[in-house]
Amino acid sequence: MWRNAVCDPQQHPRRFRFFNIVLTCEVATGHRPVFRTRKNTQPKSFMKLGFGLYRHQLNADHFRFARQCGATHLVVHWVDYFRSSRSNRPDDQPVGDDAGWGLAGDPDRLWSFEELALLKEEVGAHGLQIEAIENFDPAHWYDVLLDGPKKAQQLENLKTIVRTVGRAGIPIIGYNFSLAGVAGRVKGPWGRGGAEVVGMDGPCDQPIPHGMIWNMVYDRNAAAGNLAPVTTEELWRRHGEFLDALLPVAEEAGVTLAAHPDDPPAATVRGQPRLVNQPQLYQRLIDRHPSPRNALEFCLGTLAEMTDGNIYDAAESYSRQGRLAYVHFRNVRGKAPHYRETFVDEGDLDMLRVLRILQRNGFAGVLIPDHAPQMTCGAPWHAGMAYACGWMQAALQAL
């Protein structure tokens, strides 16, 4: 083949030199040289595609669906936000109304090793791993949040839960230290093509009634009246005591505590302050305790809704510090208290730019699609999640 090649040295000098080298090597050695393409010097992405499932979705059908979408890891909610809500639909994310998300669980029934081990076994049988459990049950820590009379006992109960999660081999607990929780959001056909999405249409400061915390009812027989507002500094003091109590146990148990920013990130929600409603406040949370088990549940959508800072600078700073436990992958348009969630490819965020930042800084954790729009078909939630997962898979492979 090489001997029969025709190459005009005047028209193709580089090609002529190439053939000359090849022929010289073949004559001298009796073997045709092997040429290898240049290696890709870009760092390979080791980020993993995950999937978030609510309590009522923890079954074989949803495990299969997550795996079919390409997920290898799950973030599971052990708290049931749907069992008694008058407005939350089980085929979508919880939104609720002024009455919240319904009843919290049983304060005397802590998560057991047996039920978590069984869940882990069922998940593993479908080729998946549990990366995190997201959110404590308000019934288990309402007085930790409120600085109430049962605080000491509830901190001990949270320590027991952390130890149980660690014993079950689940590496992360996501949490949101908030009095109001996720409240004040609305739904409408504001997505591309009229897809139903969640957003916010203005401030939400209707007071929280006694017996409610974190947007769930923990005491149906509470006295009439509303929760008195507290200061931002008081909320940070309570959170600091929470970290001081739990992080030593988390370190022993091999469990990371990952803080979700306030969603929605308004200055106040239901008349109460927020802990992390601007990107720079994550640094205050990190600086409270140097433990690597003090980490972030990094919600891109919530961070993008914040009025200060820059999402790309935040991603750069916190991923470079190695403080991201896992990532909620969501796009939005607008800023709190006026924003709309979107499909992952149409919002204000350049999601590929975020992924490149995470890759450059060595983030090797899990990304989960978050709050996917409801698509017009027989299975709106499934279609929206599948679309998001497909986009994420392609983006990760393109890095």
Descriptive account of the structure:
There is one protein chain. With 399 residues, the protein is α/β, with parallel strands linked by helices. It folds into two domains: 1-35; 45-398, TIM Barrel, CATH 3.20.20. 35% of the residues lie in helices and 17% in strands. The chain contains eleven helices and 16 strands. It has helices spanning 13-29, 60-68, 113-124, 138-146, 151-167, 232-253, 281-288, 300-305, 311-320, 351-360, 380-398, and strands at 48-53, 73-76, 129-134, 172-175, 186-188, 197-201, 212-213, 216-217, 256-259, 268-269, 272-273, 294-299, 324-329, 331-335, 338-342, 366-369. The protein has an eight-stranded parallel barrel with strand order 1-2-3-4-9-12-13-16, surrounded by five helices. Helix 5 (151-167) runs parallel beside helix 6 (232-253). The two termini are 37 Å apart. The model is unreliable at 1-6, 21-25 and 33-42 (pLDDT under 50).
What is the fold named in CATH at topology level of the largest domain? TIM Barrel
Can you identify the CATH superfamily of the largest domain?
A: Divalent-metal-dependent TIM barrel enzymes
> Based on DSSP secondary structure assignment, what is the total number of beta strands?
16
Largest sheet: 8 strands, parallel, barrel
Q: What portion of residues is helical? A: 25-40%
From the alpha carbons, calculate the radius of gyration and give it in angstroms.
Answer: 25 Å
Task: Please report the number of helical segments.
Answer: 11
Based on CA inertia axes, which overall geometry fits?
A: globular
Secondary-structure element pattern, one letter each: HEHEHEHHEEEEEHEEEHEHHEEEHEH
| CATH class placement of the largest domain | Alpha Beta
Give average pLDDT, whole number: 90
Q: Which percent band covers the strand fraction?
A: 15-25%
User: Which CATH architecture of the largest domain is right?
Assistant: Alpha-Beta Barrel
Helix/strand-derived class? Answer: alpha/beta
| Distance N to C terminus | 37 Å
Identify the strand order in the major beta sheet. 1-2-3-4-9-12-13-16
